[in-house]
Amino acid sequence: MANLGINHVTKSFGSLAVLKDIKISIEDGEFLVLVGPSGCGKSTLLSIIAGLEEHTSGTITIDGRPVDDLEPKERDIAMVFQSYALYPAMTVEQNIGFSLEMSKMPKAERVERVSKVADLLQISHLLKRRPGQLSGGQRQRVAMGRALVREPKIFLFDEPLSNLDAKLRVEMRTEIKRLHQRLGATIVYVTHDQIEAMTMATRIAVMKDGVLQQFGTPEDIYDRPANVFVATFMGSPPMNLLPATVVDGASGPRLSLKGADVTLPLPSSVTARLEPGSDVLLGLRPEWLSLAAEEVSANPMLTLHVDVIEPTGPDVFVALRAGEREIMARLPTGTPIRSGEKRAFALDLSKAVVFDAGTGIAH
Amino acid sequence: MTPSKRLQAALPAFVLSPSLAAIAICVYGFIAYTALLSFTGSKMFARFDFVGLRQYERLFDNPRWITAVENMAIFGGLYVVVATCLGLYIAILIDQKIRLEGVFRAIFLYPMALSFVVTGVIWQWLLNPGLGLEHMVRSLGWQSFTFQWLVDPDWAIYTIVIAGVWQVAGFVMALFLAGLRGVDTEILRAARIDGAPIHKVYTRIVIPALRPVFLTAFVIEAHLAIKSYDLVVALTKGGPGVSTELPSTFMYSMTFTRNELGVGAASATVMLTSLAAIIVPYLYAELRDDRRA
Ligand SMILES: Nc1ncnc2c1ncn2[C@@H]1O[C@H](COP(=O)(O)OP(=O)(O)OP(=O)(O)O)[C@@H](O)[C@H]1O
Ligand SMILES: [Mg+2]
């Protein structure tokens, strides 16, 4: 178990810059999730941490010690691959024990370590089988066993659940999280699934096109996205972005929504001074909208046209219209609402975010 | 059915029938005919006086046939083993992301494009003491150098192995290279993380995963070895003496030059059954796999 530092790491394949000045550091026992759209360089960064790929510049430290010149096996890391990468000609037992065998551990000790891990993952009955005779979920467990048996300082996971069906994915997600809590291990986990990121991480790094967009706790990322990309990438349905203009009001600047005849107070999250007349985007999570009660509420109100209602079980997603603009709201199931109505909605602006309309960066 | 539709349905059968007939008569017909002859007392011409297994007894009493079978075992065994190992080794070398890979692949595959006769003639020149290797090394100054395998009855069979392996190794390499390329790169990365040194990666992970390729290579090499005839004829003509006689050359000389049609037919039948013993299980396994897939 150890802390991990990624300091100003860049990586180019020829003239193609794949990672640009990545800077992340996590403490011992943290669960870091690297998330971002396909091709943003997550796997490349993970390979660099593992030592499978060389970086162009920067340093990687494990336990405060630079490991840039170390071979993968000397870094004391273990990795679980997306395709599981089990050795097809070996039994499950040999697969799990292979790294111990390579480090010349005596057989008796090896067998004991393997059986302990197999018990932990509930795959003891599979030890004599070959990977070809296992189901996807069982292979996944074997791949995890192969990593666990080494008792490494850091675990690296590259989209380990993406080949599983939805139900198994949720189960394994919980199981990995449980393992993390039980072992207190440091984990770096790559995914492009934002729900996996939110549910498992203690720290999330959101990447796009090789650039780190934001690094923080899941709450930071969800409640205080650093820019429009993070705001819309994390969360489902994504955050609503309403174009607005800053106007002067009696008690300081207010936001005048475009296409609607309303002005709203500036959310308390905004610390910067906004020049009147500047264009901004008001970021509102769907759950920050609620059906306004009859009496005048303390929150600002917006009258919107109800377009489509999508029940999901616990919640209903409601597509609303304000002129041309679509706004998603997330309401509790049982909310009396019908499509085609015009209803007043209260906006909870306490967490709302304001982005610069030009740069997309949060104010 | 309209006439044109009926014609369309009949056309494939119509087009295929001449070749089907040719195969039925020229291949299977003559196989049956040869098998039939092996139970007769035919000498120079085919006669139908059945003598039971007489010709097979005579065949296995013939020391020349025994030499041929022994040679087949030596040649076949070495040919298969050496060609497989060499092919695999070259494939592993080429798989190391080398430059000019295409060029090397072509160079190693090229011998396969030559006929056995050409291969035989080339190696006859190379191994001929007065013309080839020995002559060259001596003219470079090493006067005592001798390399006389081609004319030494105890060693001549190994020259056939050399020539045969030279010709087929590139093809085996191509088979193995395709197999190596099929190994998931994530497996190799996992092995690196597990700390396996490169030779362990191959012996423990990659080569065991190539089992089907080994099977294919073995079947191809084995049938090439058993049917090799032209290579021997071009390289040694079965000599010196009968020291490089193979079943195929034996069969030819019995049938066509020594007027022992019955014995020749018996040896041909023995060769066919041993080939079938190799090929049929392979085909069976392959076809069963296909059905499962
Ligand atoms: N060996 C390579 N040579 C050249 N470019 C590469 C190489 N490996 C990766 N890349 C490029 O680097 C970029 C990042 O790749 P990477 O595999 O890290 O993406 P990713 O974030 O893991 O995507 P995904 O979610 O699809 O797995 C991609 O644009 C890819 O084309
Ligand atoms: Mg990836």
From TrEMBL, chain A:
Residue span(s) of domain ABC transporter: 4-234
Family from the record: Belongs to the ABC transporter superfamily.
Keyword check for Cell inner membrane: yes
InterPro entries linked to this entry: AAA+_ATPase, ABC_transporter-like_ATP-bd, ABC_transporter-like_CS, ABC_transpr_MalK-like, ABC_transpr_MalK/UgpC-like, Mo/tungstate-bd_C_term_dom, NA-bd_OB-fold, OB_MalK-like
Gene Ontology MF terms: ATP binding
Protein name according to UniProt: Sn-glycerol-3-phosphate ABC transporter ATP-binding protein UgpC
Membrane topology field: Peripheral membrane protein
Assigned keywords, A-Z: ATP-binding, Cell inner membrane, Cell membrane, Membrane, Nucleotide-binding, Transport
Locations listed in the record: Cell inner membrane
Keyword Cell division: no
Record-linked PROSITE patterns: ABC_TRANSPORTER_1, ABC_TRANSPORTER_2
Short name of any one Pfam family annotated for the protein: ABC_tran
Gene this chain is encoded by: ugpC
SMART domains from the UniProt entry: AAA
TrEMBL record, chain B:
Gene3D superfamilies recorded: MetI-like
Transmembrane segment boundaries: 12-36, 72-94, 106-126, 155-180, 261-284
Topology class, membrane: Multi-pass membrane protein
A Pfam cross-reference name: BPD_transp_1
Domain ABC transmembrane type-1 as annotated: residue spans: 69-284
Keyword Nucleotide-binding applies: no
The keyword Transcription regulation is annotated on this UniProt entry: no
Subcellular location per the Swiss-Prot or TrEMBL entry: Cell membrane
Membership in a protein family: Belongs to the binding-protein-dependent transport system permease family.
Top-level taxonomic group: Bacteria
Protein name: Sugar ABC transporter permease
Coiled coil start-end: none
Organism taxonomic ancestry: Bacteria, Pseudomonadati, Pseudomonadota, Alphaproteobacteria, Hyphomicrobiales
Keywords: Cell membrane, Membrane, Transmembrane, Transmembrane helix, Transport
Species per Swiss-Prot/TrEMBL record: Rhizobium herbae
